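To assess whether ligand presence alters the predicted conformation, the chain was also submitted together with glycyl-adenosine-5'-phosphate. Input:
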Amino acid sequence: MSQKNDRQNLMDKITSLAKRRGFVFPGSEIYGGLANTWDYGPVGVELKNNIKQAWWKFFVKNREDVVGLDAAILMNSRVWEASGHIAGFNDALIDCKACKARIRADHLIEDSLNIKAEGMTPEDMTKLIEENNIKCPVCGKKDFTNARKFGLMFKTFQGVTEEDKNIIYLRPETAQAMFVNFKNVLSSTHKKIPFGIAQIGKAFRNEITPGNFIFRTIEFEQMEIEYFINEKDWEKSFEYWQEQMASWLDYIGVKKENYSIREHDKDELSHYSKKTIDFEYNFPFGTKELYGLAYRGDFDLTQHQEHSKQSMEYFDTENNRKYIPHVIEPTFGVDRSVLAVMIDAYCEEEAPTADGKTETRVVMKFNKNIAPVKVAILPLSKKENLSKKAKEVFDLVKTEFASQYDESQSIGKRYRRQDEIGTPYCVTVDFKSLDDDAVTVRDRDTMKQERVKVGELVEWLRKKLS
Ligand code: GAP
């Protein structure tokens, strides 16, 4: 089988596992779905929460120089005027006149010609598509409209009348709230530069391209830091945050060989950025942006100072001077993190069955710190005395470790289920447990089993899961 098919198969396998085991479901499925929306199921929400909590611990709680924020999604529209989003946050789209498909012109160029199209004008894109006889990926015809710009922000109305003056936007990034609150945070915390503000929250973009599962959605979550610095330190700070982002990827178990770093060309840079790099992940559908790191200069604070007429200056007491800080922005997509750790964790391996044969087992080898369930308690049979003993063990561990109790179907099937959701430890309560007050703990990765006294189980798990 070709490598391309293998990779496509992997994506199909992950999407199907995600639904079967409760990681991610298609959004509004019983009504035929809603393009580019997905819902996180019982296991998925735990995985996603673990990633967010790990991120908060890694970048906020464990540091003295970063503080948190949880701002409103809806903001005064003038924020988006100042940030440049109303004027400049758009995609160039073209319509196929034959089949009516609406397509992102930059993606069409990139996929057909294998060149980067960011930074090109709609006119350039139209010309390139014509000159290279690019065909519609849906119907194969060559009959396109010119490329035109479409705003990416979702609009809604505040109040009862749908007038232009009442238009508000669902935020397309969490970043702006951190700039708008720069002075509030400064005066309430008395932080000294360099320091950062971090936020985790929803962002919304009217994406029309088919999304490749949770890679590109219209509603997603971001984890962002705006790190305020003195301009002279920007290169050092940029390098430092690049290292921090790599350490974070290691912390959540994304292997080095599966991602790379790409610096944006000058004509590809966002309107605010002086230098940007992407952490690109080798997704089954291509090498694409996982995270970004941008040097935003003093663009945002200067814009907000001009538009709001409020000072965004910082007073440097040591040098007795005022200045507008510059900003380094590490930005992380939550949903893309979930997808990357799922792809990295997915493993198929030969495993022995109870009757001495072998079968292929699917196991999600998540790093233990983000595994959605840490421990499964499995009574060998549903006999009343075993269930009672197993529930006592479950009560013992559930307050400290995310745990599941499962007594349905054969023990083999339950192991396979737990392997597929990546549970590091399965604790089996058998008939011997009633006499020796011990349980068998099975390791997800090695499948080795160990007998552990119930009284020592919590401490045993603590050591293994720390
Ligand atoms: N504040 C800077 C900013 O928003 P971005 O590169 O547009 O930069 C940051 O977005 C991150 O958000 C991306 O690296 C990606 O992980 C995630 N992201 C962006 N658009 C997304 C979408 N449509 N669906 C899922 N994640 C998305």
